[in-house]
Every structure is written in C-alpha cells, then in structure tokens.
Amino acid sequence: MIRIGLLISAAIILSGCVTGLWSAAQEQWDTVEDLVPGYEHPEDEKKKSGKAKPSKLFDVEKIINPVKLWSSDVVGDYESVGGGFKPVLSKNIIYVADKNGLVASIKSDSGQIIWKIDLGLSLGGGVGIGGEQIFVGSSDGDVIALDASNGVINWQVQTSSEILSAPAGNGDIAVVQTQDGRVYGLDAQNGSVRWQHEVEVPVLSLRGTSNPVVKGNVAVVGFSTGKLYVFSAATGDTIWENRIGVPQGRGELERMVDIDGDPLLVEDIVYAASHQGRIGAITKTGKALWYQDADTVLAPASGEDHVYIVETNDDIVAIDQGSGSVVWTNKYLRHRNLGPPSVAAGYLLVADYEGYLHILSEKDGDFLGRIKVDGSGVSAPLIVDGDILYALDNNGAISAYKFL
Predict the structure, then answer these.
(1) Could you report the per-residue pLDDT of 225-257, keeping only the tens digit for each?
(2) Separation of alpha carbons 78 and 66, rounded Å
(3) Residue at 182 is within a domain
(4) What is the pLDDT of residue 82?
(5) In a domain, 22, yes or no
(6) DSSP state of 203
(7) Does residue 333 lie within any of the structural domains?
(8) Which residues contact 31 (CB under 8 A, 6 or more apart)?
(9) Alpha helices in 156-233, H assignment, sequence order
(10) Which of 61, 202, 261, 286 reaches 20 to 30 Å from 93, CA-CA?
(11) Low pLDDT (below 70) residues in the chain
C-alpha cells in the first residue's frame, strides 16, 4: 500500500510538473499568436478570461467633427482586408488591394472606381507606387508591376520568399522585402534584379515586415533583427546601418526586436521603432540623435514638434522630436487594436477594431472628437492629404473626411 501510495504521489507530482511546463509553453505560444498577421496584441494584464479586455469608450465632447465627403466599396471583405493592407495616394488617385488579389484605383475627390482587376494571387502588405507604376507582392514571392493608369500588368517576377509588405519605387527601381530576410532592388522597367541584400533572420520573429521607403536615391528598410538599413536605391550599396532594437533577456520571445512599422522620413531625419526595443532618430548621415524605449510594430507619425507611436498595448505616446523625451501618454484606448497613428490638419488620429476614428490633441493627447467609420474596424494605415483623410475599413470600403 505504501509503495502504491508513493507511486501515485510521484505520478501526481510528475503530472503537475508536466502541466506546469505545458502551461508555460502554452502561454508563450499564445503570445506569439497575438503577434502574427492581423496584429493582435500580446496578453498584457492577463485576466481570467485569458485575454486583456479592450478599454471601454467614454463619451467625449466633439470639439472637432470632420465632415464625411463620400464612401466607396472598393475591394473585398473582412477576411481579405482586415490585416491592415496599405492603400496609397498619388496624383489624386487612391490605389488599394486585398489579400484575394483584387487591385483597384479610385478618384480621391469622389470615390468613383477607375479600374479594378483580379490578379488571382494571394497578396500581402498592400500597394506601393513608383513613377507611373504601382506594385504589389504575393504570398508566393511574386512582385507584380501594373500600369497605374489602367491596371495592365507590365511585368511579374519571382523572388525567394513570401512578401508581406508593399514594395516601393522611384520610377527607376522597385524595392521589395521578403520574409526570409532579403531585400531586392528590381529594375522598374522589366523587373530584373539589379541588387539584393540579405540578413540572417532570428530564430523567432514576428510574421510580417516593414514596408521599404524609397525617397530619391535612398531606400530605407527595417529588418527583423532590429536593424535599420539605408541603401543606395540604384546600386544597393549600404550607406549606413543602425541598431534600433537591442535584444534583451534569455528566451527567444523576449529577444524579438523586429522593425515591422515603416520607417518615417521627416526632412533629413529618419525615425524608426521596434518591437520590445526602442524608437530612434537618425540623421541622413547615420548619426543617432536619440533613442527612447518603445514597444511597437506600427509605423510612427510626425506632427508639430512630436513623433507619435502606438505601443503594443495601444498606449499612444508623444515623443519630443528634438530630445526624444516622452511628452505625454494616452492610456485610454488600451487593447483596442489600434492602427498606425496619423496627423491631419493639426490633429492626431488613430482608428480601432470597432471602426472608431479617435481625434486627439497633439499638445496633450486629450480627446477632441470621435466618429464611427465602419463597424468592421479599421486596421489599414490612414491616408492624409492636407485637411482630407481617407480611411480603408475592414470591409473593403474607403471613406473620405474633411476637417473644417
């Protein structure tokens, strides 16, 4: 009896150990799941339900109430748009795509569809533009260049891996980043590879990459290593590199420092931020002006004297452009799955998973207004053109608003 009792006790203890180990592993895996496409946040302040609850909205005085100009159903539904596909505006035309391969252009003054095509490919990231062409990438590694005026395919080439970001160009070169740590410079006329650069991908990284930014003869690219690179767009030569995210801790989860948000170019300064790392301000020569602790996978935005980020718990943080010090933090939208911040007409804008567009003061982060764009939510980057805002909702419609 004593022997049986000991065996049972040992079994119970062993079972408890295994259960404990499994629970720990499951918690880590749940955290990873929260950071893969569609960008759902990690379990901060985990509750009995197993998920952090979104902050409840309180009534705000509508000091600012933009006027809706038009709305147009353009592409797919929540399943094909809800991952935050990037639309782009050029010469009064908006270009948009969805995961199922639909690509369309619409007039920015009316929402009228100019052309729409179905590529029959699974796309990732959204639309980029360069010269008179637009570019999209596929989950199979295809890069497709289309004539911006009519949607006709000019060329299509295969790269090494899945593409989860929008290519970018300058009329001479198209730059695209793939999930396996490569960035390609493709000839804009025929898609031939002019140059490529490869970094070693960490053992564990977020599913997604930042969109390359091309300005003149400079291409700025953030990698899953936490490093920011500036290349010559024409040759691919590295002009400089800078470590934005510094891995910390022992475990691979703790050491993830991906730069998934687009780098931001403001005059001669590049701002870039990483997951579980920092945001930094770097000059065009590669000199670091400042760093500030940050945890984000979204692109920063720039306003009057401030740079804004949305952290992974949805805190909105304003940082002084000159010193890097935190000016204010708004915690009232925590866990509402916010999209990237934008600035329009002197106001800071963020949209959430329920489709609300929140209007905040740049000065102190106070709420100045709120409008409902669409109940499906808004996760795509907002487009700002002066005092006009364009929002792509998760049901595939674009709406235009004017700040009076």
Answers:
(1) 999 999 999 999 999 999 999 999 989 999 999
(2) 25
(3) no
(4) 67
(5) no
(6) S
(7) yes
(8) 42, 43, 253
(9) none
(10) 261
(11) 1-50, 78-79, 82
Q: 115: which 2 tokens?
A: 């052309």
Amino acid at 69: L
As a whole number of Å, the CA-based R_g of the chain is 22
Encoded amino acid at 304, one letter: E
* CATH classification of the domain holding 70: 2.130.10.10
- Per DSSP, the residues of 2-22 read HHHHHHHHHHHHHHHHHHHHH
Residue 339 counted as domain residue: yes
Residues 6 and 13: their CA atoms lie apart, in Å, by 10
pLDDT tens per residue across span 63-94: 999 999 999 999 987 667 767 789 999 999 99
Residue of 108, 44, 46 whose CA lies nearest to 74 = 108
Q: Give the Cα separation of 326 and 226 in Å (integer).
A: 21
Amino acid at 237: D
Q: How many domains does the chain have?
A: 1
Q: CA 330, CA 311: separation in Å to the nearest integer?
A: 11
Close Cβ partners of 87 (under 8 Å, ≥ 6 residues apart):
94, 95, 96, 97, 126, 127, 380, 381, 383, 390, 392, 398
Q: The domain containing residue 71 runs over which residues?
A: 50-84+303-404
Specify the pLDDT at position 50.
57
How far is the C-alpha of 372 from the C-alpha of 351, rounded, in Å?
9
